[in-house]
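Weekly puzzle thread! Below is a chain. First person to post its structure in token form gets bragging rights.
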Amino acid sequence: MQRLDLKSLRYDKLGRSVLIDGRKIVLEVSHEALEAFSNRELTADEAVIKVAEEQKRLTRLAEWVPADDGKIHITTNMLMNDGVFASGDTENAY
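Winning reply:
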């Protein structure tokens, strides 16, 4: 099981994303994905808070999405999941 360290939560201005460390990976959640999930514009601080609030969902995504060079990038499509995970169909998700 993947564990995310809330103490490592930070905003990456250059990449416009929120980063959080896990075991042997870094989870990167795009700012656009968080805004789409929240259905409103977010400041950098609000985006970081949103990741902290959604830690459980992001931990599950980190288990399903393969890491690329130690980094998992969560996009709008992955976070909103288009209903794929609701049906339990993770095989064809990505």
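Puzzle host: Confirmed. Bonus trivia for everyone else. The two ends are 20 Å apart (CA to CA).
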